[in-house]
Design goal:
Protein name: Tetratricopeptide repeat protein
Organism: Bacteroides clarus YIT 12056
Keywords: Signal, TPR repeat
CATH architecture of the largest domain: Alpha Horseshoe
Structural class: mainly alpha
């Protein structure tokens, strides 16, 4: 029992340097595997090294890997996936962007990059990335869902602002009313209509209950606008 207790506490007190050492050992094996032309084995070792010491593994990629080599983008994807799994969205975004340096029109890579930007609070950049996705793959479900919801929520905010400001006018003139109606028309053209197109595409691809409900709300708003 005493021996087991000492072993248990020894494991708990294992210094971080041992993990770093393990990562360094694995990375040396990565180098050896690459030199021997064993790319698949090298990628597997690299994945293990990331789990043992992400910073050492990242530095290995930046300083030891030829960026024009066939294995380089595969190692980038390993780091991107590792950091995404760890919810380190800043680092994950960095490496998905690095992946796109190799394959700028890779749809899964663009989608992953957009996801990371959403998690980082960069919705406008995510919007651009998803628009790029749809230029390459018009049937991409995730991009259509994002853009449909994005334009709908933007339209909702702008519509509320217009209505709140108009309600503040005690006795609106015809010109003020006309300006209000024109503002609503603009919100519909540049917000709700765009949202409708994307969400209709979503329903063609997938029976989404939420997309259906949002489209019904847009239809009701359209009827109110046309009164």
């Amino acid at each position: 029992m005493k021996t087991l207790t000492l072993l248990f506490f020894g494991l708990l007190l294992c210094p971080m340097s041992l993990l770093a050492q393990s990562a360094d050992v694995l990375l040396q094996k990565v180098s050896d595997a690459l030199s021997a032309g064993k790319d698949d084995y090298a990628v597997s070792l690299f994945r293990q090294a990331a789990g043992m010491g992400a910073e050492q593994t990242e530095m290995f990629y930046w300083t030891r890997i030829e960026k024009n080599s066939a294995v380089a983008p595969r190692l980038v994807r390993e780091l991107a996936a590792y950091y995404k799994d760890k919810r380190n969205y800043d680092k994950a975004y960095l490496f998905y962007k690095e992946w796109l340096q190799y394959y700028p029109e890779d749809v899964p890579g663009l989608v992953a990059c957009a996801e990371m930007q959403m998690m980082r609070g960069e919705a406008k950049d995510a919007l651009k990335l998803y628009e790029t996705v749809l230029a390459l793959d018009a049937d991409n479900l995730q991009a259509n869902i994002f853009l449909g919801n994005y334009y709908y929520l933007q339209a909702e905010r702008k519509k509320k602002t217009l209505e709140d400001n108009y309600k503040k006018i005690v006795s609106p003139t015809r010109m003020q009313y006309a300006s209000y109606r024109n503002g609503l028309s603009d919100v519909f053209a540049n917000g709700y209509d765009k949202a409708k197109n994307y969400l209709q595409k979503v329903l063609q691809l997938f029976p989404s209950t939420e997309a259906g409900k949002t489209l019904e709300r847009i239809k009701i708003l359209e009827k109110e606008m046309n009164k």
